[in-house]
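My current task is to audit a protein record that another person submitted. Thanks in advance; the entry in question is below:
***
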Amino acid sequence: MFGDISGMMNKLKEAQQEVEKTKTRLNSVLIDEVTADKKIQVTLTANREIKAITIDPSLLSDAEELEDYLILTLNKAIAKASKINEDEMAAAAKTNMPNIPGMDMFK
């Protein structure tokens, strides 16, 4: 019914290894997001780990404005990183996924 179970298990292991390699690689993919007026810049990895935040000194006197800028900029950067992460992880999982009936969610 399912064919070569051992072969499928090997394919699943290979898919898992590919996903792990992709996770590691995504740690080196950096996403920069900058506000239109260049007052805030954030850098994070495609695994959504913040690496740097640069703040224009003019924002330091107004905590509410600074918070607004940070929230908007971080949310944009996280959305970009999430899209890259999801696309890359789906591709990695799909690469070695065995053909199991009813399990075509990665195709």
